[in-house]
Amino acid sequence: VSQDKIRNFSIIAHIDHGKSTLADRLIEKTGMLEKRELKEQVLDSMDLERERGITIKLKAVRLIYKAEDGEEYILNLIDTPGHVDFNYEVSRSLAACEGAVLVVDSTQGVEAQTLANLYLALEQDLEILPVLNKIDLPSSDVEYVKSEIENTCGLDTEGIPLVSAKSGLNIEDVLEDIVYNVPHPVGDVSKPLKALIFDSYYDSYKGVICFIRVFEGKVKTGTNIYMMNTKKEFEVTEVGYVQNERIQSKEITAGDVGYICASIKNVRDARVGDTITEVENKTEHALPGYKKVTPMVYCGIYPAEGEEFTQVREALEKLQVNDASLVFEPETSQALGYGFRCGFLGLLHMEIIQERLDREFDLNIIATAPSVIYEVMKNDGTFLEIQNPSNLPPATEIDYMKEPMVACEIMTPKTYVGPIMEICQNKRGVFENMEYLDEKRVTIHYLMPLNEVIYDFFDTLKSKTQGYASLDYDLKGYQESDLVKMDILINGELVDAFSLIVHREKAAQRARTIVEKLKKEIPRQQFAIPIQAAIGSKIIARETVSALRKDVLAKCYGGDISRKKKLLEKQKEGKKRMRQIGNVEVPQNAFLAVLKYD
Ligand code: GDP
Ligand code: MG
Fold it and tell me: According to its UniProt record, which reaction does this protein catalyse (predicted)?
């Protein structure tokens, strides 16, 4: 195909504005899939993603569209993930396109992620095609949202498609818009191969499958390829594109999008953002924008009682083959034994991995409280980066500590400005500025410690604003901060898995919450169990789980035989989810209770 018949585009939107639904309709209208097949279609293919309504893995689908001008066009639809944790992947898939369809829910209007995604698309110089969705709903306000798109996005809304992705109304308008307004690719086929990896995933039969956009030259089976950033070499075993399934083709040439396989065993060797060229005929410069993503949030993952360390390791290894941003290394905890310190892009990424360990590997795990990376300068001039609170040197050896900061952008109807500022202030946020977007809506900018943002900030924001506020954040370097290590002692014994690094002013409040929660979670035993929170040797909060009275036990065990049996069985069941700490049995839920912060 000649390049003037190709259109490479993405769909971008705020979450829930209808991106996936619109993608389904475009696929359906171009005759790629039957309606009933759509449930299991290529986009959003992971269960977890569907349930959470988010797209984690990006993929590319080829649509063949016969336009009103009678010509046939190849529309390569490149899907992008929808959550801040995955912004880098979004930027790489946008780099594979010439245009982006910006879906705006006409009942909600422009929200934080609408703008955040728009900025990402503009950074890649994409042609932006706004689309108003959900016009079937009575609360749809087309004129208002149009003016919002003009004023806050600076986009022309003349002739903007007004669609219902749900019912399929006016979907052709979107297709025609793409054909006429997305520029076609221009790349020199005679030059050395230059292709961008915008997604890669592991397939147990073929090894890693790389989704690529070819900018110059061409690639086919047998090509010896060279990854310019990881510096690895492979021989291509298959090339093709995805229609309703993978279809092999002879080659992929400049301007086009497709996949390649090359017996690659791990996604780490085919990183998103890397440039592929030929071993024998290298292109001069790699494509810009490659970034080795670094984890923002860490936590310890330990096998629950009765689970094997090696099983957890195997599961993490399997997940990592498919997820280059998951990192882990073994660590030991006095309380929990052998486990792993794992790094994630953000809390959502962390939750997804924890859930996959449970669902796909049927493993019971205990996760410690999430932590960010702190910078520590010791009195003797040594510099440390700490992500496990247990590794923090004693306070007397520390000169100063720094914590990572993020620039938060919160978009909200102006009626919620008060409550939002209160939440941010509470989380040690520093107000930067506020802009009026129009008469109803504002954007508030705060500089906040990442440490505070990872705990329930987003949820609090949503609940205090009935879901109207939206959040976007970006790492903004490190800042000196008065941080302390808080320990939890159960029956006088320090449980390292509960240790946290907190801001000194927050310590007392946090300590109270935790000891109160633990008191509720730890069952009464035959002796009283003190639960204490301490900074160094100073106790800052205390609760006691009182002892069971002897006669209660006696009554229990004195009863009839079947009741006794039942009780023993119940205890056995319960044991599985307990961890023995000193002579106290701590249920798994106690660890979760420390994680959640309310
Ligand atoms: P995404 O998060 O942007 O991918 O949004 P989805 O495509 O998952 O849509 C979010 C919700 O909005 C789903 O419940 C859809 O059924 C619904 N939805 C999407 N488009 C329309 C539409 O045009 N009209 C109506 N009424 N609902 C829609
Ligand atoms: Mg979606």
Answer: GTP + H2O = GDP + phosphate + H(+)
Query: Does 134 contact ligand 1 (Cβ within 6 A)?
Result: yes
Q: Could you read off the pLDDT of 201-224 as tens digits, one per residue?
A: 888 888 899 999 999 999 999 999
Best mutation site among 12, 16, 107, 145 for ligand 1 pocket (most ligand atoms within 8 Å of CB): 16
Region 270-282: what's the mean pLDDT? 95
* Contacts of 13 by beta carbon, 8 Å cutoff, 6+ apart: 19, 82, 102, 103, 104, 105, 113, 114, 117, 133
Q: Compute, in angstroms, the gap from residue 18 CA to the centroid of ligand 1.
A: 4
Ligand nearest to the CA of 22: 1
Q: Give the ligand 1 atom nearest the CA of 15.
A: 2
- Report ipTM for this prediction: 0.99
Query: Tens digits of per-residue pLDDT, 317-375?
Result: 988 887 888 999 999 988 888 999 999 988 878 888 888 898 888 888 888 888 899 99
Ligand 2 centroid distance, CA of 81 (Å): 8
Beta bridge partners of 275: 196
Q: What angle do CA 469, 475, 481 make, to 5 degrees?
A: 100
The pair of three-digit structure tokens given for residue 554, joined into one six-digit string: 């006696």
Nearest-ligand number for the alpha carbon of 25: 1
Q: Could you tell me which residue, 70 or 458, shows the higher pLDDT?
A: 70
Structure tokens at 133: 């969705």
Q: With bands split at pLDDT 50, 70 and 90, how would you rate the model's confidence at 577?
A: low
pLDDT over threshold 80, residue 246: no
- Annotated binding residues for GTP: 16-21, 133-136
Atom of ligand 1 nearest to the CA of 22: 7
H/E run at residue 280: none
Tell me the β-bridge partners of 277: 226
- Kindly write down the DSSP assignment for every residue of 375-438, as one continuous string: EEEETTS-EEEE-SGGGPPPGGGEEEEEEEEEEEEEEEEGGGHHHHHHHHHHTT-EEEEEEESS
Element containing residue 456 per DSSP (H, E):
none
207/211 Cα distance (integer angstroms): 13
Task: Say yes or no to pLDDT of 55 above 60.
Answer: no
**In the prediction, which pLDDT does 557 show?**
52
CB of 166 shorter than 6 A to ligand 1 = yes
Q: 365-367 and 297-303 as β-strands: parallel, antiparallel, unpaired?
A: antiparallel
- Strand, helix or coil for residue 235: strand
Rounded to the nearest angstrom, the distance between the alpha carbon of 16 and the centre of ligand 2 is 7
- Nearest residue to 430 (alpha-carbon basis) of 443, 408, 447, 444: 447
3-state SS class at 546: coil
Look at residue 164 in the predicted model and tell me its pLDDT.
98
Sequence letter at residue 114: T
The DSSP bridge pattern shows strands 327-333 and 374-378 to be unpaired
Assign 3-class secondary structure to 496-508.
HHHCEEEEHHHHH
Q: Which of 464, 415, 469 is nearest to 446 (CA)?
A: 469
